[in-house]
Amino acid sequence: MFTAINRRSLGQLPCLAQRFHSTLVIAEHNNNQLTPITLKAITAASKVGGEVTRLVAGTNCAKVADQIRKVQGVKKILVAQHDCYKGLLPEELTPLILATQKQFNFTHICAGASAFGKNLLPRVSAKLDVATLSDITEVKSQDTFVRTIYAGNALATVKCNEEVKVFTVRGTSFEPAAVERGSAATEQVASPSPAGMSEWLEQSLTKSDRPELTSAKVVVSGGRGLKSGENFKLLYDLADKMGAAVGASRAAVDAGYVPNDTQVGQTGKIVAPELYIAVGISGAIQHLAGMKDSKIIVAINKDPEAPIFQVADYGLVEDLFKAVPEMTAALKK
Ligand SMILES: Cc1cc2nc3c(=O)[nH]c(=O)nc-3n(C[C@H](O)[C@H](O)[C@H](O)COP(=O)(O)OP(=O)(O)OC[C@H]3O[C@@H](n4cnc5c(N)ncnc54)[C@H](O)[C@@H]3O)c2cc1C
């Protein structure tokens, strides 16, 4: 009976269709540890329904595969180990994903909407000749997803009719899957011949004792109002007192005050901490797109008309050069 049903008729048979859904989630990791967004992508995949399979590709990734085995909701882990997966280059991962897709015929393929996922999945979609749904914030059903448009000012509910639905998942919109009580089976998959188009040489990561921006519970962000890179020290002192990460507006990044990996916003990182403190930031829509889902927003700005106050839960109309040292001093007590 099941073999008589083709994919096109599945839409009219929701309960049977449920049996056929299978989502491949591409793991992002550094051979030692999964990135937190990968656990959130698993949650999104579980909401699609059907089986969730993880693909872990790397040079020496047994430890990561072991970690995923414990993740709730994962049925199977496909492991591919080869030197060519060093640095997880999309040029090398794409042929692997295509070969895996050919073998298992997944209905959905997803990854976190991080630099890794954004780099990889459009390439996979192009090869499969389907569209990518980028940065989804909600799964309504196996073919209907929500994503933001107009720099986060509107939500679009999108129905995807592609045979294989390829999507990236916004990390701040999903809870991480629990790393407990999982019992996924592991299967080794063969690696296709290396594409050899590019080679991973090295990466230089900013070293910081502060928490990582996208997973920090508290973020202190500075804007053009800080006036110089040296003045960001005021924010570093405050952040260190609060165990916070430091972010910035694009204007502060473009002016060279801080490195571009600190940029929050539409073209920067999306954050949703428990507490977001915006200092000397006007609140342009492109900045709000990256932080307005924060649980509590505090704004410090000397201009009472600054748009940031429209989204702030607490606003302080004050000169930041007075307010920030006072806050830091108060925390020292
Ligand atoms: C396609 C596109 C993508 C973009 N992507 C992003 C993005 O990802 N992230 C982003 O942030 N922006 C982005 N932008 C830029 C965005 O439009 C704004 O230009 C930028 O966010 C402004 O940064 P700002 O608030 O630091 O600077 P400003 O708008 O210049 O605001 C500075 C604020 O500091 C206040 N201030 C000044 N001095 C003091 C003081 N002493 N005490 C207290 N307050 C003070 C001022 O009142 C003002 O409100 C994008 C723009 C475009 C067109």
UniProtKB/TrEMBL annotation:
Q: Which GO terms describe its biological process?
A: fatty acid beta-oxidation using acyl-CoA dehydrogenase
Principal place where this protein is found?
Answer: mitochondrion
Q: PROSITE patterns annotated for this entry?
A: ETF_ALPHA (PS00696)
Give the UniProt subcellular location, in the record's own words: Mitochondrion matrix
UniProt entry keywords in alphabetical sequence: Electron transport, FAD, Flavoprotein, Mitochondrion, Transport
The Swiss-Prot or TrEMBL record lists the needed cofactor(s) as: FAD
| InterPro entries reported for this sequence | DHS-like_NAD/FAD-binding_dom, ETF_a/b_N, ETF_a/FixB, ETF_alpha_N, ETF_asu_C, ETF_asu_C_CS, Rossmann-like_a/b/a_fold
Ranges of residues in domain Electron transfer flavoprotein alpha/beta-subunit N-terminal: 23-204
Against Pfam families, the record matches this protein to:
ETF, ETF_alpha
Q: Which Gene3D superfamilies match?
A: HUPs (3.40.50.620), TPP-binding domain (3.40.50.1220)
User: What's a GO cellular component annotated to this UniProt protein?
Assistant: electron transfer flavoprotein complex
Molecular function per GO: electron transfer activity; flavin adenine dinucleotide binding
Return the cofactor note field: Binds 1 FAD per dimer.
Which residues bind FAD per the record? 224, 249-250, 263-267, 280-287, 301
- The UniProt record lists the keyword Flavoprotein: yes
- What is the stated purpose of this protein? Heterodimeric electron transfer flavoprotein that accepts electrons from several mitochondrial dehydrogenases, including acyl-CoA dehydrogenases, glutaryl-CoA and sarcosine dehydrogenase. It transfers the electrons to the main mitochondrial respiratory chain via ETF-ubiquinone oxidoreductase (ETF dehydrogenase). Required for normal mitochondrial fatty acid oxidation and normal amino acid metabolism.
Q: What do we know about how this protein assembles, alone or with others? A: Heterodimer of an alpha and a beta subunit. Heterodimer composed of ETFA and ETFB. Identified in a complex that contains ETFA, ETFB and ETFRF1. Interaction with ETFRF1 promotes dissociation of the bound FAD and loss of electron transfer activity. Interacts with TASOR.
The record, for PANTHER family, names: ELECTRON TRANSFER FLAVOPROTEIN ALPHA (PTHR43153), ELECTRON TRANSFER FLAVOPROTEIN SUBUNIT ALPHA, MITOCHONDRIAL (PTHR43153:SF1)
Q: Which family does it belong to?
A: Belongs to the ETF alpha-subunit/FixB family.
Name assigned to this protein: Electron transfer flavoprotein subunit alpha
Please name the source species.
Salmo trutta
Whichever gene encodes this chain, its name is ETFA
